Amino acid sequence: MKNIAKSNIQQPVTHHWHPMAEPKLAEQSSPLVFERAEGVYIYDTEGKRYLDSQGGLWCVNVGHGRKEVKEAINAQLDRLPYYTTFGDTSNLPVMELAERLARMLAPEGMQRVFFSSGGSDANETALKLARQYWKLSGEAQRSKFISLKQGYHGVHFGGTSIGGQMYLRSMYEPVLPGCFQVDTPWLYRNPYSDDPGELGKICANLLEREIVHQGPHTVAAFIAEPVQGAGGVIVPPANYWPLVREICDKYGVLLIADEVVTGFGRSGSMFGCRGWGVKPDIICLAKGINSGYIPLGATVVNERVRQAWDADHPLAAILHGYTYSGHPVACAAANAALQIVEDEDLPANAARVGSYCLAKSEKEFADYEFVGDVRGKGLMMAIELVTDKISKEPFRPDDPFLELIQDLTRREGLLIRNLGSNLIISPPLVFTKENVDEMTGMIANAFNQAKSKFNKR
Questions:
Q1: CATH number attached to the domain at 68-342
Q2: Domain ranges of the chain
Q3: pLDDT tens-digit series, residues 123-171
Q4: Which of 108, 130, 261, 330 has the smallest set of CB atoms within 10 Å of its CB?
Q5: Class of domain 33-62+345-455
């Protein structure tokens, strides 16, 4: 995480440690400081406007500064700023939100919601509930988790342990035992096949083989993102998730969908798993649940999982929770934000504008020598940069060319997320085709300026 762009405030960071950054490098640079935002734009302290093509961090789905959400927050602050939901206490916004989520997820048969403070919490909750489910079901030996390479499931020890990006694990190892990864159906980078259908079958078979190898009676759950986000917007073949559901059913393994990024329209359907026609047993939600206005996460379970808690069992108490579980202000923001998502049909907009963005980007960027792949689904897209198109060799994380691209795009007034060799695009779901034209024009300007530097390498 070397890249720290030039700042509008010319002083280094002294007391603030930034997430996902090397402190020494951050302390030697100056941050880009933002002051206000509106719609799909964000402004720094000098008044420069930037097009937010990363949606904050995958999350500002309804756009910045929505009046409806701000009014809901202010009204709730006037009524009840906070009270715990531990034990038998509750509040009106969390009760409304739980009912709303159950309704929105009725096609998947979801029955109960456990609230937390964000995506890492939501995934941690899912892992703990999965293990507890099997204890309550009389199969306590089912404790292992299988996930995908390149997968990202947050920063807690559970999420780090099932995560498939090794550079995020190495400084914190050893991780938790009983966590295993299998190959991702990554069409651009795999040793198996260039045919999507064949690759989907092969990678699903690899999952089945791992379940059999570990012993089905020891596997608690398989967890994956419907579309991998931080791994580089890896879109699986259309047959992969349905095959995974069949395999999990065959061996009784729980299927957990990490919808922290894809939930609430990002991939072009209300939920990512719904886009594949698949019903998970547990769904993890955050980010778009209230468009990032106030931290919130949720873990939702179906009837199969819920029924385990009907038993009179000494381990039935859910001894898990967060101080801010069901925070009334966060839930009020979520109710307002999700009402916008439904009223304005933002999943359909994401599908329509996302298709336009992908087609335009494929056309405009494919011929650059350093662009290896352009891929996406809905309003989540990646432009993968390579040093050589034939070998598909990625740039080293510390290659100055990556820092150059980030600097040039910001000079253009574009916020785009650099994750290694991947440029991640995940704008608010209120993005328009005109916004896409503006964004792609900025990227093209940056790429054109970078071409001479690349050719001199």
A1: 3.40.640.10
A2: 33-62+345-455, 68-342
A3: 999 999 999 999 999 999 999 999 999 999 999 999 999 999 999 999 9
A4: 108
A5: alpha beta
